[in-house]
User: Fold these one by one.
Assistant:
Number 1:
Amino acid sequence: MFADKYEAVIGLEIHAQLLTNSKAFCGCSTKFGLPPNSNVCPICLGMPGTLPVLNKRVVEFAIKLGLATHCKIRTYSIFARKNYFYPDLPKGYQISQYEEPICYDGYVEIELKNGEKKKIRLRRIHMEEDAGKSIHDQDVDTLIDINRCGVPLLEIVTEPDINTPQEAALYLTKIRQLVQYLDICDGNMEEGSLRCDANVSVRLKGEKKLGTKTEVKNMNSIKNVEKALEYEINRQIQILESGGTVIQETLLWDAGAGVVRPMRSKEEAHDYRYFPEPDLVPVVVPEEWINEIKKSLPELPEEKRDRFMKQYKLPKYDAEVLTSSKALADYYEQCVKYIDDYKSVSNWIMVEVLKILNERQIDIADFKVKPEHLAMLINLVNEGKINQTTAKMVLEEISETGEEPDSLIERKGLLQISDESFIEEVVVKVLEGNKENVERYFAGKDKLFGYFVGEVMKLTKGKANPKIVNEVLKRKLEEMRVKVNG
Amino acid sequence: MPVTIKDVEYIANLARLEFKEEEKEKFTEQFNRILEYIDKLNELDTTDVEPLYHVIDLKNVFREDIVKESYPREEILKNAPSRTEFFFKVPKVIQVEKPQKENEDKEQS
Ligand SMILES: [Zn+2]
């Protein structure tokens, strides 16, 4: 209720796990879900006497994301050691970047609900390695799996330009979409390959000085980020309103309970004592390489959206939904190779296909209906061979079996009946069997027309062409009216 | 500003080291001596000198993104003072009220 008095200031730190084959500094595989401690070598185990060697693709991926977010790219950048003790970090330090990160001073543009555009500035994007996993839910001990140790990450840090949980969600959606388009991270927040931490503070509107900030962690979906920020902003406002002071601390979001809880601090101070990593020499990136990467960048979401609007004459809304993921956009473009009715394909994908994906909680990649089959189905509707209702039913069924639509339609005899004389027979039968209703219709009960249509469809098992049914029914009723009145 | 015994205690704590009182005093004195010596460098004017991040003027050599075989798990776990069949085992790191392994897992990095 005091929300109008205050303004929130939010900065986000995103960690994106990179889709490289091997780890950042050794040749161990980055594959997810392998047996514990099976992707480990003396380098990622931090044995004394081993030396890290940087994976070229990590730098390439960092530059890709930097270019896609309008960052400046450093041709000379260095690694640093971030020192802290934790059992899943066997070296006692994480190789990261501190001074001279590879990308800096970029921005991402988000579009707010009112259509306004807002730039979220990026302070930096830097390369670093992931830590291992600690498993705490054992009775006595903590178990350590080193598999993830050394898997490359990009950390993407914004300026405190975000003012609402909704803006945070929009920004996060944008970053996820970008890393997926660039094919550098799978963007899966639930599995932790994309992680987001937030720095949150509130201040009175108009105030220049920033309030005391807290750090909120453990939000493993975009929805949760929104909810956690909502909660934390309200919590801070409430503290200030009751005359208290916000304590600078790290909080964990508990999605189940819908609250944040203070994290038991494992170190009194976050004193990481960064210093340049002596085991790695500076990374020198030649300008030519940057240019090469620039040329190889794929079409990015906004470019694709604009092209969809132009090339397929789609409304902005359609283009936006279809290009929300690269895989969905690719599916659309595969479909329209087989059909000229671009808008119908868009409608079918946005409504029916997305509905099925949603119901079954699957990705478009796992959708069994091939693009050419969806196109075929829409063509059959457009040609009047089947009606919409049948088509939806067919789609539902072939999305489970992967069968071709025409073979299913034939096997089940679903072809639409457009034979006028046959439809006329059915219409006459319906009207003769409903004499009372026909009289009531003539007496002014117009709504009964729909009832007659329904009866005809029932007798033809939904296969009659609705347009022809309408025409014939109108004509027949008119003839009867003339007879009655005449 | 000279180093005090408090600074030594702080650094010892970060490094997870414990010292006797007389050792702390000795380190305080040594720290100060080292820093005094390093301070001499500040007498030089380095306004127009690029910072040096590495003592050897080398540039990076990359590794191609190719997977190499890791070590057998038995080798990896062999030196561990405490282990299970598959994991390293360490004393409980965090008091958890209820199982929430995902939580602590992500607070790193
Ligand atoms: Zn390794």
Note: Chain B has four helices and one strand.
Number 2:
Amino acid sequence: MPAVTYVSADGAREQVELAVGTTLKDGALENGIDGIVAECGGNAMCATCHVYVDEAWIERLPERSEVEDELLESTASERTAASRLSCQIKVSDELEGLVVQLPEEQE
Amino acid sequence: MTTVIVGAGHAGFQGAATLRQRGYEGAITLVAGELGLPYQRPPLSKDLLHGETTAEAVAFRPAAFYEKKGIGLRAGDPVTGIDRGARHVDLASGTRLPYKQLVIATGARNRELAVPGTDLDGVLALRSLTEAKALAERLGAARSVAVIGGGFIGLEVAAAANQHGARVTVIEALERTMARVVSPLMAAHVTGVHEQHGTAVMLGGRVAALLDDGDGRVAGVELKDGSRVEADLVVVAVGIVPDVELADAAGLRLENGIVVDEHLRTEDPAIWAIGDCAAFPLPNGGARVRLESVQNAADHARTAAAGILGSSIPYDATPWFWTNQHSCRVQIAGLVAGHDEAVVRGDRSAGAFSVFCFRGDDLLGVESVNAPRDHLAARKLLAGRTTLSREQAADPASDLKALAAAGQPDPVA
Ligand SMILES: Cc1cc2nc3c(=O)[nH]c(=O)nc-3n(C[C@H](O)[C@H](O)[C@H](O)COP(=O)(O)OP(=O)(O)OC[C@H]3O[C@@H](n4cnc5c(N)ncnc54)[C@H](O)[C@@H]3O)c2cc1C
Ligand code: FES
């Protein structure tokens, strides 16, 4: 199972192993990692599951869909080149070692 | 400082989470009428019925969350009474909980169908996880399914039953489906998609009775005109009624829901009501409404939590909603009821378009099907100060996003 590290807004790091196919959102919620709201339950409707992927990973993740891209315009914390919606990214073997940072605010 | 939240649905859960997230230091007790972990409802009529998620996966958060956040979850022990004078609530177990602030988030329950036969085996409804599991189990084996009620939930169930291979009939009493919440144009489009999949949609169908097969199992539906629809599974989805009995018994004012002000506070300053059970005033002196959506529940919860923490910012969120039926991913922004003109943007025949609903020059709401970008722009348009003309709405070359951005209040420096 690929290991993913979540870094909270205050810098605390937590590494968890996630089953392939799990979304980064579910991976965080199931492991009690704070900082994700996910109001719409992963339907790409709410933008409260925003994360920043570590720089090294920006290019290595599957591209954003148009909808994800649009929705990222409505995040509570600033959007950057590293911004993604964690409900739209599924864990795969290629993502072993992924590091994502949680934003200050989601709502 | 103690806050008691009654009901652990979308509103109650979010209220507890937001209070903690914003630094509330008092005790929080979240009283859930149902056993088990608090859960989300949208997947119950969608992914769960399609076998794409499990009953465990619909929980908002694992049990550890409540412990970590210091949220006292009391599951399966409903509140039976509120004593406003003494400021405490009583639970079914006999426990008494004092409160400084009380949040009523009791939601709603299914409206019952007042005809003979609703207690037959094979007659189901859908609101709770338990009901969803029962329905998911039966859908696999059902050969013919009658869905009574052509609202969102009825139609989502119809789509799932159809995809499980059953012969499906939707019986709607009104002259169109989803009449309360979508335009005739969007309703006709989505209904057409159901029909293309082989589902029969009966409009103006008045149910007289559910029929017994002689062994206590349902055999079908009899309509008032004497016709019959054969079915070995009947799903009743004729809307909901807000759960207001507690508030009523406590002497709080009701008006199709628990009456609250623009802060979601009832006439008792220590009591708030949020979500499906709350009748609240629309911003800018608008009418009092009661809405049934996740957005409404969660945004209400945020406003009430902020209020408990001392904020006085009134509620003014733009409503949004979604429903998935067959290939139609429908998203609605605003409230379209009362519109007098519907302007289409996009290609109806391709099944990806939006309906802009105007009353006079006011844009009331936008319904999008498989057009999520329109939906997101519409949410911004409705929240901002842009006036959109019908021509701009209809012209696919007009940039909605840019128009919406132009109408946004200036970012706070
Ligand atoms: C099958 C289904 C699909 C849906 N799909 C969508 C969708 O796609 N999009 C969308 O936006 N909305 C959808 N909705 C609507 C949405 O789920 C509701 O608007 C939302 O759940 C309202 O939240 P709430 O907390 O106000 O009420 P509820 O979720 O109903 O929660 C209220 C809770 O209070 C509890 N309660 C009641 N009385 C007491 C008491 N005395 N003591 C303790 N607890 C009590 C109840 O058991 C219940 O768990 C759907 C609803 C259903 C049923
Ligand atoms: S959970 Fe709502 S957009 Fe990701």
Note: The first strand of chain A starts at residue 3 and ends at 7.
Number 3:
Amino acid sequence: MAEFSVIGERVPRVDAREKVTGEARYAADYSLPGMLWCKLLRSPYPHARVLNIDTSRAEKLNGVKAVCTGKDFGGWTWGWMSSTRDESPLAVDKVRYMAEAVAGVAATSEDIAEEACDLIKVDYEELPGVFEPEEAMKEGSPSVHDYVKNNISVEYHWDFGNVEKAFSESYIVREDRFRTSRATHGYVEPPATLAYYDPSGYITVWAAKQSPYFHYRHLSACFKLPLSRVRVIQPFIGGGFGGTKNDSLGGDFCSVLLSKITGRPVKYVESMEEELVTSRRRHSMIVYSKMGVNKDGILMAIHHRVIADGGGYTAIGPLSLYLAGFATTLPYRLPNFKYDAYRVFTNNPIGAAMRGHGVTHTRFAAEIQMEMIAEELGIDPVEIRMRNAIDNPEPGAVYETINKVLVKTCGIKEAIQRVADAPLWRDRNKVPNKDGDISWGVGLSGTSYLGGARQMGHQACAAIIRICEDGAVNLITGATDCGQGSDTVLCMIAAEELGVRLGAIDIKRVDTAYTPVDPGSYGSRVTILAGQATQKAARQAKKQLLEAAARNWQVTPEDVEIRHGRAFVLSDPEKSMPFDRLARIACYSGTGAVILGTGYSTYGIEPLDLVNGIGNGGTSYSYTAQSARVGVDMETGKIITTDFTIASDCGRLLSPLTAEGQIEGASIQGLGQTIYEDFIMDSGKTLNPTFLDYKMPLSMDVPAIKLIDVVTDDPDGPFGAKEASEGSIVSAPPAVVSAIHDATGVWFKELPVTPERVVQALKNRKNKGASAAP
Amino acid sequence: MRETEGSPIKQVRLTVNGKAYGLDVQPGKTLLELIREDLGLTGTKEGCGLGECGACTVIMDGKTVNSCLVLAAEADGKQITTIEGLADGDRLHPVQQAFIDHGGLQCGFCTPGMIMSAKALLDENQNPSDEEIRKGISGNLCRCTGYTKIIESIKAAAGNAGGR
Ligand code: FES
Ligand code: FES
């Protein structure tokens, strides 16, 4: 194993000081002189034709400077793919979900802007709505978009091997229906932007975006300006987790347009209620899972039929559905696999990306179903997983799944074994499983996730290292740290490669005027792709420094090394100097002495094959095994979670403190969507649009978490790294649900497992006198 | 907060981070708005604006409050401490340092409020148990960390934090 000086150290985050002192500025913390406030008027109907909008009374209100409606965007629409550009900044002739924005106001204060919204008169013709995806896909259901038939927004039909034959040869075949919850990101920072349209034709925005370059393209296209005139400056981001902050929103476009009209900067901050009723949340997916195994419990085939609630627009839905399919062949050997998936338009808020994107739904279904089968066969949950788990390929070897996903490292077996050997699982029968009304249970899961997500089109990812004459180093990338710590990891990579202290590296946040174009924080891609780019840029800069040192000492560059902030001659270590001195010598050595290293990522360049589902969805794959212990109150149905043990194969941990935080945080987000979180919807209306009612885990709810590192050195990652965090949001739901089964004897196939569902299921079982699954 | 028409503007005197202020405020204005907009202290965050997330937590006369729920007028005559008032020049408060050293933050949006809650807890109880720490921050939502490292940070700060 190579020796590292920065990689693997428990260093604090590079932005920690600014954050603990309150100096870190987020989008809503920015303001400009003469700034106006934007507010949006939102639809009170989930599905209605917009007949007329009368803004005259709003315009007359004192303090109102401009009002805009959908027509002012000249018919411009956007979407994730060129064939799915179905969304306009403000609804034009129809609203397709409740609270879709229909008009925007700019006024001298937020209060006045809000008051003006109330003065806008919109004539709607209410249309029948459709809210359940399985209803929506039926012939004759109300049509959300006229351009598609039966509300099918996206569909895939993939077929690998021969599932029918495999099912007929299986010893047990099970068919079950699973459903995942209507969960959302739940970041504490609501979406916000400050926009200024300079009358000479330049846009500048400070926006809370985890993919600022998507926004840059949207603004360029919407306002018909060359990209060189669109500047998105990235503030600190208060959490992203995919979806909403990956995309542009009505308020973003309106702020820019209203700034263009008024000539003044315009600020838009969404209220948390607006965020919760409109967020581009995780899809709720119905998974019809059919699984066949032989009598030893070896997987023969899986057929998944998935129906996803897409809500009113397509957004990133084609990718969500792809991810829910392609990864089903991990982390267990699966010789036959069929996937029929439908994303269906409804009059609900938009279904989109969220941490654990796509994979969490189908992996939950497959994990639980495999356990149900193991129970039928009398095989231990650990044993059935170990029998099916993919082996770690020998170095240089590659395991190929039936859909041609290439696995170069796989720590799933080690992860499962180590979780099984850890006290939580090993000693589970040594503690009493009953304590008054509380019944205790322990469950286990073994899952996988992708890192370094591939894209449809643009994959560019670059880094620039600039050595300053005083030995300071600028690291410039287009990657966005939305709070999860990638800036720290990238700085560590740069420091390791250059041989300097971490403190010497200063990373710049995205400013599309200066930083290289990049897809942003997305599909666990930053550490892997921007990490590789940083590594290459640093090596190139270092080469120039070594050459300067070699000239100075009259030796060959190969004979010079830089470590711990000092340059020295390998064959004569007496000859040495501090890094800052070398930097000065190198930077002053002539007119061409600009020490700039550039590098770009070469991973992930194959485009995704959405239509056939063949090939890699990521650059590499992480593996996670998890156990969980819960107590279920058999009277009230309330669940408490006391312990998690999580073993993660993240390749090599570059920044342990950061990675641990990711794994812990994501597992708690996963716990939330398993037992607490769900939007309660009534005909398109969100009945719980506050943090009080959309209940996320608080400090009193969380278990003690024990982490186990499974180290694999992946060839396709900087220093062998893979993703960390999306793995544990996928592993938590099946581990917790299997623990609930252990405690209650009931298999829950619908998330979240709320106290009401528990009570109902226990009641059903009593009535039937047999195991009932709701 | 909507302005009530014709309602009188009120003079509010308060001390924020040791500095005395006298401000004219509209009746509907919250303490959070006063801190962020009038004083320009943007370290205190607005998450929900409804008292449900704790991002706006400040210390008022020794007790934590959700500043989005307190009217500016109610803060008349009060002593307020915000995140900007914790460090002593370049020297961070032990709770701030502990959050840095133990990874008690990620995106940082909940962090100012979380640190204020932690400070208030440690001011009252220099050696809190795990359970007491969890209770002390139970009004502060954090979506990034899963709380584990926040609890560890506060535990590490305990004992170090006394007397500041
Ligand atoms: S902003 Fe005050 S509690 Fe959420
Ligand atoms: S660190 Fe992001 S919400 Fe707590």
Note: Chain A has 19 helices and 33 strands.
Number 4:
Amino acid sequence: MSPRPLRLRKISNPPPVSGFKPYGSKKNRSRAESIFLHYEEYEAIRLCDYEMLNHNQASVIMDVSRPTLTRIYARARQKIAQALVQGSQIIIEGGKIYFDSEWFSCKSCGCYFNNPEKEAKIEKCPLCHSTDIINFDENPENEEEISAHCHDVCVCTNCGHEQSHHYGKPCSEEICPKCGIRMVKKGTPHSKLTN
Amino acid sequence: MKVAITSTGNSQESKLDQRFGRCGFFTIYDTETGGVEFVPNPNKDVQEGAGPASVQLVASRNVSKIISGEFGIKIKSLLDSLKIQMIVLKEPEKTIGEIIKMLNN
Ligand SMILES: [Zn+2]
Ligand SMILES: [Zn+2]
Ligand SMILES: [Zn+2]
């Protein structure tokens, strides 16, 4: 039995702790109320905010596309903000980036399971045999959720026109409808250049 | 097909152990014969390496699925590479008997 090479190489620096506990309150300490920060989300924060790399450089290191990196990063920021504001514990956990197999969850019994045989298609829960299962990869819920919580604004540095930011789409890809030039994110130093 | 279930004790009334590497017992259930065996986990109290040692133990029993409350990151990659299916059930109150019943349904 020789195991295939594992895909752990993508994270160069594992987190030094497995999570963070709030203090001052006895509330929100149970595992169920915790915020689960996935390793790849932790890595995105480490690369972008600690190593100060740009999203492009970070995406190369994590071996994902730039839009994917931006999504992972946005999710990470949102979770950390949520933990700070709600006073929740953060648990750093593995995300699916580590594993070769796909993961599913069963809506009937609530279990999670992977598909170790890539060739075979999963049709039902291996535990309760319900067919009411969802594939994590095909589940858009998370993205829509973040999108709804994103209050960023794109601004035109020429005329000051503002529009709400499209989650997952770089501001520079938005074109000002009045001037036809590329927009920037409101609140960044760059956005104040011509004002 | 054999299924391993992490158990807090050695009877069907015992509860699902939420830990994998340091669980009390491994229940080895044979879905074809209906045979149930409780294997005490020798890695329960070891300082380090409980996870990989427990993976070895269940792999040597030729199980194709493992049911537990959680699997650590290293364990996940190990089991993944061994093509053993992981089933994560975060229900510490479920008994081994109830889980076997679910499998038989
Ligand atoms: Zn199920
Ligand atoms: Zn403009
Ligand atoms: Zn924008």
Note: Chain A touches chain B through 26 residues (CB under 8 Å).
